[in-house]
Design goal:
The complex is a heterodimer of chains A (162) and B (439). By secondary structure, chain A is an alpha+beta fold. In chain A, 20% of the residues lie in helices and 41% in strands. The longest helix of chain A is centred in the N-terminal third of the chain and has 16 residues. Chain B is α+β, with helices and mostly antiparallel strands. In chain B, strands 14, 15, 16, 17, 18, 19, 20 and 21 form an eight-stranded antiparallel sheet that branches. In chain B, α9 crosses α10. The longest helix of chain B has 18 residues. Classes of the chains: A alpha+beta (162), B alpha+beta (439).
């Protein structure tokens, strides 16, 4: 058990606030949710539980790449997201899995709709994050998104943050 | 049906949809080539039905009994290794009534059993069990006639397995021609060989498959389309250049870009984002490569990045790291894409981690670059609706003329010209018997 107990409500608040920042494209504020050295991963649809350092992935960002991704997405030259997609995130089934000394492992489900060029794309999946706990709140150590779709829908690229 | 406007009295029609004019130095493709269901049907029957197609890499099924199911040219297939270790490719369709025989994506099995009437086939294709066989006459002959159907031709080069649905095609090596050499270069990067890893990027684009080919053979788009990626590299301390980068027509529709100074190469050419430790590993690996391959061959393998296109459905990206990409046309405006990371056998864990991180930061639908390529395919597919059946049919053409003066003069085409696209389209034009341009 860590220095303080993290409740499901606190995790839900964290995830809902994150979803709001992303849907509002407040990417600098979103980036501040990561600790130094954090990672962000998006697994492929054939993922079998392996570490993404040894096999293929959709995203396997270290902290430098997370920052580079934010910088890119803020640019008017990120053509895939300029004009920006509208995204709409629903997060549910939040579970606190395990609390360590200074971290908490959590799971949640997501449905994200992305709208662009009069088309709708649906991304269904789950989160398996490791969050750092301190007196201030929670931050990402590992942000992992696991798409559940068998393949991505036609046109459903990952040009945004899943 | 609209009719072609003669834009030049000297233009040559390679095909009603592909025109080149060596006086005006223009090369144009009619946009119905990307839109027309009739053209698409011809591509599936004439190209996918009569050409060697890339199916998969033999390291995807390393052990006896391993299998993958995969659709190629719209035909569901089983790609497997039988119990004796031989690679087999079957139509994934029960010989009895045509049911999809294997409904799993991958696995390991000695037998494939159809759930419908419980017929069982060995992984070498034998009909191993026929429930209630007393009701058939001459059971041995019946069983023999109902073996699982193999695709007519299966051959491989450097572990890349190709199939043909036409039994009468020339051998694979004849088809690959000069492309075979470049596959061999990539296959010799690792001292213990190369293999694919799990973590396959499966995605689908709302664009014609040929837009995916053009994009890979098109260095002209790199700086404007990938502005943010170039900016990212600059911040890591690396300046991308377009200098000393060339495009090659390998014949048979195959194309190649050789890119020097375009990017670092893990294990071979250092770049600041790879870190200091990788610099030392590169020095050691280059010595190993020179000893194993000889200095000249090692330099050819290691010094420059390459993007190889093997007609019609394989792209081999040998860049910072390696990606095998397969294009599966689904409809005129839809293409399924499958991409495998291709890695060195037994490489150190930190090199593997760097390889995966670096490659997927560029290539794939979640990279910092490929999403902008996908945006381009899809924006073209939507944009060419504008000129379909236009009052002036002369405006419904796309231009690929860049660098034709150099080509005419016999100078080596640059990657930032459009020569590799033209050689693709010339080959395509020789296979497709299109009618006059229409929608």
């Amino acid at each position: 058990m860590g220095r303080r107990t993290v409740t499901r409500a606190e995790v839900e608040d964290f995830l809902y606030q994150e979803a709001r920042l992303l849907d509002e494209w407040r990417l600098d504020d979103w980036q501040a949710l990561f600790e130094d050295g954090a990672r962000m991963e998006v697994t492929t649809t054939d993922w079998g539980g392996w570490e993404l350092s040894s096999a293929g992935a959709f995203m396997a960002d270290d902290h430098d790449l997370i920052k580079a991704r934010v910088k890119r997405l803020k640019s008017r030259k990120a053509h895939a997201e300029y004009p920006r997609s509208r995204t709409h995130r629903l997060i549910s089934n939040v579970i606190v899995l395990e609390q360590g000394d200074d971290t908490v492992s959590i799971a949640a489900n997501f449905v994200i709709h992305r709208f662009r060029d009069e088309q709708t794309y649906t991304y269904v999946g789950r989160y398996a994050h490791v969050l750092v706990v301190d007196d201030e709140g929670l931050r990402f150590r590992l942000r992992r998104s696991i798409p559940v779709n068998e393949v991505m829908d036609p046109g459903a690229r990952l040009s945004f943050i899943l | 049906m609209t009719h072609l406007t003669e834009t030049s009295s000297t233009g040559t029609s390679l095909n009603p949809l592909v025109r080149e004019d060596w006086d005006a130095l223009t090369f144009r493709v009619h946009r119905s080539a990307y839109r027309s269901p009739a053209v698409f049907q011809q591509e599936i029957s004439r190209i996918w039905g009569h050409t060697w197609l890339y199916l998969g890499h033999e390291t995807e099924i390393p052990n006896p009994g391993d299998f993958k199911t995969r659709t190629l040219g719209g035909r569901p297939l089983i790609f497997c290794r039988d119990s004796d270790g031989e690679i087999r490719v079957f139509f994934n369709s029960c010989t009895h009534r045509g049911t999809i025989l294997c409904r799993f994506k991958e696995g390991n099995t000695k037998h494939f059993q159809c759930f419908y009437h419980a017929w069982v086939f060995s992984n070498n294709g034998d009909l191993a069990a026929l429930p209630g066989d007393e009701a058939y006459t001459d059971v041995p002959e019946f069983r023999e006639s109902m073996r699982l159907r193999s695709v007519p031709r299966v051959q491989s080069h450097e572990g890349f397995v190709f199939i043909s649905f036409d039994p009468d095609v020339p051998d694979l090596m004849t088809h690959l021609g000069r492309a075979a050499h470049y596959m061999s270069l990539t296959a010799s990067i690792g001292p213990k060989g190369m293999h694919t890893v799990p973590g396959v990027q499966l995605y689908s684009i709302k664009g014609n498959w040929k837009l995916g080919v053009e994009n890979a053979m098109d260095g002209y788009h790199f700086a404007p389309t990938h502005n943010t990626f170039v900016g990212y590299l600059r911040e890591t301390g690396f300046a991308v250049t377009d200098d000393d980068q060339y495009a090659y027509d390998l014949g048979g529709g195959h194309g190649l870009l050789i890119l020097t100074g375009h990017n670092g190469r893990i294990g071979m050419v250092w770049e600041p984002r790879f870190g200091e430790k990788e610099k030392e590993r590169i020095a050691a690996k280059r010595r190993e490569m020179a000893e194993r391959l000889g200095p000249e061959r090692a330099a050819e393998v290691a010094d420059a990045s390459r993007i190889l296109y093997v007609f019609p459905n394989l792209l081999l990206f040998d860049l910072e790291a390696l990606t095998i990409r397969q294009l599966e046309p689904v409809a005129p405006d839809r293409t399924d894409v499958r991409a495998w990371q291709f890695v060195e056998r037994d490489e150190p864990a930190e090199a593997r981690e760097l390889r995966i991180k670096t490659m997927v930061s560029f290539v794939g639908p979640g990279g910092l670059a490929t999403p902008d390529d996908i945006e381009a395919y899809e924006a073209v597919q939507r944009g060419i609706e504008a000129t379909a059946d236009a009052a002036d049919p002369g405006i419904d053409w796309s231009d690929m003329s860049r660098g034709m003066a150099d080509e005419k003069a016999g100078r080596q085409g640059r990657s930032i010209d459009e020569g590799a696209m033209r050689s693709f389209w010339r080959h395509w034009a020789s296979l497709i018997d299109a009618e006059e341009p229409g929608r």
